[in-house]
Design a protein that fits this description.
It is a single chain. The chain is α+β, with helices and mostly antiparallel strands and 344 residues long. The chain has four domains: 97 residues, PTS-regulatory domain, PRD (Orthogonal Bundle); 51 residues, no CATH class; 83 residues, Gyrase A, domain 2 (2-Layer Sandwich); 47 residues, DNA polymerase, domain 1, CATH 1.10.150. 40% of the residues lie in helices and 14% in strands. The protein is built from 14 helices and twelve strands. The strands form four sheets. The protein has a four-stranded antiparallel β-sheet with strand order 10-11-3-12. It has a four-stranded antiparallel β-sheet with strand order 5-6-8-7. The protein has a two-stranded antiparallel ribbon with strand order 1-2. Strand 10 and strand 11 form a beta hairpin. The radius of gyration is 29 Å and the shape is elongated.
Length: 344
Amino acid sequence: MAKQESKYGVQAGEPVGVIAAQSVGEPGTQMVLRTFHFAGIAASIATSGLPRIIELLDAKKTPSTPISKIYLNESSKKSFAKADEVAKKISEIEMRSITRRIVEDFSKGKILVMLNAQAMQAADLTAGHAAARLKKDLGLDAKVGKHGNIVIGTHTKNLKEVRAIAVKLTKSIVNGIEGAGRAMVAQDQKTQEFYVESAGSNIEPMMEIDGVDSSRIYTNDIFEMYRVFGIEAARTTLALELKKTLEEQEISVNERHIALIADAMTSSGTIQSIGRHGLVGKKESVFARAAFEETVKHLINAAAFGQIDYMRGVTENILVGKQIPLGTGSVKLSIKREEGKKKK
């Protein structure tokens, strides 16, 4: 009789967790500790290889190099001019990048911001626009003075307060979205559509810009995807980022193993790391937690609070030398007494 093929991806009792861990862990030892320049954004260097894998599996709140892809709607994606317009609205420009000099007048309680004409022209900004942004964001009395410079009234003559305002000014945003970083127009070689790449991440305000397709906006920051779109989007982003990082190193791992890791990290409804502060640290089994890290702490706490280990998992059974409840260990055979007597 021919063996019947299973309609499921795996057989019952298959230790999928262990296999997934091996499938990612073993090639992970061959990964290179290096970074590379992200296409289209020469100023930003994207974290890749092992550092990026660690960043993802440790579920770090903010990635070391956040990058966003802002896709445009049907009316804008074929036009470079419209894409460039969106990029200028997104691109984050700080006051210090367009300033030539800042002069503090403590006797009058005023600050004179001398602008760099070339930097202003490159950023497509005017003194009036910068002054209006300062007034809106910082609540300062900012006006355009002689020679196109900005004059700010601080309403105080206290040296410390005037200096604090001047320092705050240099870091203030005069154009674009805070946290978005530098934005540039790129083109997809397959579809020939234009989109915007940003060396930063703050997608919620980006979605409100005219011409942006909010359904296709993407960032490599899994926590931001979680905040804006929910846990399913975070799970998909996590799986995509893991897959992309491995492929960049020319390491082939079946996507089912990667999907399982992403599922495990997001199964609770929030993003958990894989480690003593996440999945392993919250395991039901005392022995499983103790076998990973902080052995003495887990055993003492279990003894002090009378915790019971029901030995349902793989780790704890291996630890005490019992058969694991998977594979052949998940099957129990029995025989009827009457049938046994007849055979004899």
